[in-house]
Amino acid sequence: xxxxxxxxxxxxxxxxxxxxxxxxxxxxxxxxxxxxxxxxxxxxxxxxxxxxxxxxxxxxxxxxxxxxxxxxxxxxxxxxxxxxxxxxxxxxxxxxxxxxxxxxxxxxxxxxxxxxxxxxxxxxxxxxxxxxxxxxxxxxxxxxxxxxxxxxxxxxxxxxxxxxxxxxxxxxxxxxxxxxxxxxxxxxxxxxxxxxxxxxxxxxxxxxxxxxxxxxxxxxxxxxxxxxxxxxxxxxxxxxxxxxxxxxxxxxxxxxxxxxxxxxxxxxxxxxxxxxxxxxxxxxxxxxxxxxxxxxxxxxxxxxxxxxxxxxxxxxxxxxxxxxxxxxxxxxxxxxxxxxxxxxxxxxxxxxxxxxxxxxxxxxxxxxxxxxxxxxxxxxxxxxxxxxxxxxxx
Length: 394
Ligand code: LMR
Fold this sequence. Notes:
This protein has about 400 residues and is of the alpha/beta class. It folds into two domains: about 10-45 and about 305-390, Aspartate Aminotransferase, domain 1, CATH 3.90.1150.10; about 65-295, Type I PLP-dependent aspartate aminotransferase-like (Major domain) (Aspartate Aminotransferase, domain 2, 3-Layer(aba) Sandwich). It has helices at about 10-20, 45-60, 70-85, 100-115, 130-135, 155-165, 190-200, 225-230, 260-280, 285-295, 300-330, 335-340, 350-360, 380-390; strands at about 30, 90-95, 120-125, 140-145, 145-150, 155, 170-175, 205-210, 235-240, 255-260, 345, 365, 370-375. The strands form four sheets. The chain has a seven-stranded mixed sheet with strand order 2-10-9-8-7-3-4, with helices on both faces. The protein binds (2S)-2-hydroxybutanedioic acid. (2S)-2-hydroxybutanedioic acid binds near residues 33 and 127. (2S)-2-hydroxybutanedioic acid binds near residues 13, 33, 34, 127 and 129.
């Protein structure tokens, strides 16, 4: 049987992660996978997470099953964090999922049940696992323009033009904040324009929000998702706790479905729980429980928010340092976009050949489409990267 298997396509981000590990050079710089790193290159366990875990070890008296949708307290806390009252709680169905990827997968499965013929529209570019899962599930997909490779900003006109071809009932996947891989984001007036267009087309928005708190702050990063949630009868939202709680390996995420009325919510909830049962039964609990403890305990929450803010400001500072150094070396403002982008990533906007040259000559690892993880930099590596970028003729 196994002899009949075909080789599957490799995920380019994970392949890069493996290549970095194997590189023996101690001067190598990892700007690949989207994992936060401090100035020493470590991915620390956040203080509030450690404290909640300690408390959990002492207090937890059972590891028995919780429920197919996960702990309702986790759903409540996450709905509050992401939607902050934008829609009535009794209109939101929710299930805990194994990470943000699990939420995306379950959302797509739900779309297949509710609207089998719908086309899913993706930004070009997007996180590579979006098209990969959609293709695996045999669903229809289309792309809309998103990134202007000249300005390195959002191609807003191109985006609206392409979304003009969306059909009623189609699904439009949007990054709630901190666009991955580009780092270029819509302004609030632009979000309003996109919402109006999707409404006019009678399409359904699907928000992937994996970096809340990494861009302009916890509250501001949720603003677009809230605008969308309050503007439509039906919305899907996949939220990840991997990055903003630093619980990557615990696989902590949630799928929310905004429904029109409470009756529709009950049916949607039943379908979402059913899908969990089919795919993995009960969702992982540890990370979700830790997140719930942090969000509902004022002291833990204050400490988490403070540390998340340190992380965010640290990344903004790195962006500024890199943009300043490139301004100095290039005698131009053409790299200023690096300071304007938000989130963990920026797309440098250069060719795969130059990306490969940076890897081969300098041990600088970025994804082939020239996505850089800004958190992989520090004060020592910024001048090295900036010089390499200029020397490579970017
Ligand atoms: C990334 O984009 O690098 C992260 O979301 C990690 C992943 O799973 O791809």
